[in-house]
Amino acid sequence: MDRARLAEFLRSRREALQPEDVGLPRGQRRRTGGLRREEVAVLSDMSIDYYNRLEQKRGPHPSEQMLAALARGLRLSLEERDHLFQLGGYAVPQRGRRADHVNPGMMRIMDGLDGAAAQVVSHVGETLRQTRLAVALLGDDSVQHAAYTRDGSGSQAAELAEALLARSPEFAGLWRGHPVSGPYCAPKRLLHPQVGLLELHCQMLVDPDQSQSLVVYTATPGSESYDRLELLSVVGAATSR
């Protein structure tokens, strides 16, 4: 681990990232550009003290999970993420089998969709990131037969499918039907226990470089589903606190 260079790299990326890049208000009291340390800590789901110590060259040796969280919080590109891992003393994550790093463009779009039901999913259907409304609305992760067939045994798709088959009878029933979905995102009818029936339309933005998709669910304005989705955004936000 190169503690000094790791601290310098974190500081340089923090100072280069603007509040608008991550969906935060600039505010009138902000005297300098870039993000504050506490903002990076919140975006990376870690304590402010932990992040402060990393930038001050006196922190603990961060785990791979912590570095991955920092890469997401700082909106690093894949190349920057790889560099961060090397500074932390780890081998570069294999890109072929790990598609869990949401790229900065997807992250910026997600930051502007906090009030919508949106999620970023991998090529195997695994949820990588989602808004609070999506957490309240959508179900468990899934995996596609097409990804399993394409990637083969020992792949991320195979590992995820085997884990879900072992613990979820519902998933096993769906799996026996050999679901193979394409780029078309079909409308959904969901019966939510708090707000009732929701008829939703789906839009999908595909990132071909990393085999990830941004999926957004909306309802027709003026419909009952639209009003219920609005209600769920309030209910979901309240229950997540």
UniProtKB/TrEMBL annotation:
CDD domains: HTH_XRE. Coiled coil: none annotated. SMART domains: HTH_XRE (SM00530). The keyword DNA-binding applies. Keywords: DNA-binding. Residues 34-81 form the HTH cro/C1-type domain. One of its GO terms (molecular function) is DNA binding. This is DNA-binding protein. The lineage of its organism: Bacteria, Bacillati, Actinomycetota, Actinomycetes, Micromonosporales.
